[in-house]
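Supplementary notes for students who missed Thursday's class. We covered one full example, reproduced here. Read the sequence, then the structure, then the short commentary at the end.
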Amino acid sequence: MSMTIQSGIKNKILIAQNKASYIENAPAEMLHGLDQQMDKNEDGGFYFMDRIWIPLIGDVRTTIMDKAHATRYSIHPGADKMYHDLMDMYWWPGMKRDIATYKYLADANLHVSLEEIKVDKSLHFIEEPIEIMDRK
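Structure (token representation):
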């Protein structure tokens, strides 16, 4: 499936790249030399291996992951599928790790409600005894 970058997201990316370029030595420090392998495209954006670079500035990375997670073509994709869908167009350092973390936090089955968490006066967790059952 071929995906294209929506103009609204692309504008946010270009603005974030512009802001990141104003931070002194930010790309060089964060990218460990990979910034020298980036090309500036005719749209003014920085690309790494034909994928647009998504800086940490702003909330663009989360927006991209939110859109990918909510798309009707990827009904709650796993982290690997989501990464493979996004890696053709976008790039940032630690992208696969960030997507895996996002997927972990987005999975409602892994969340524990606040009512289920019990702490004592010293804010230590109170563990409830677990009954161990024999297998038959």
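Commentary. The domain at 7-111 is CATH 1.10.340.70 (Endonuclease III; domain 1). The chain is about 40% helix and 5% strand. If anything here is unclear, bring it to office hours.
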